[in-house]
Amino acid sequence: MALLRTAGIALAATGAAHFAAPKAFKPVSKLAFPNDTDAWIKRNGATEVALGLALTTQKTRKAGLVGTAVYTAWLGARTAYNRRSSH
């Protein structure tokens, strides 16, 4: 489970980076969230910090895994929908 702990730390760090360097996330975030992109960068950053931290401990790992799977599917669906809608 050291791999999941490491992945959790990486995900939490990526989430924190949304606040430290939001411009780096703008191009990718704009694909899924063309409206109010800046606010969504912060929301996604907070979500990734929470999910990442959940993955770091055994007690919350299952919830973190489920949450990360749902979050990833949701981001993919939003991106696909907005790509279709923009054509």
UniProtKB/TrEMBL annotation:
It comes from the Bacteria. This is Secreted protein.
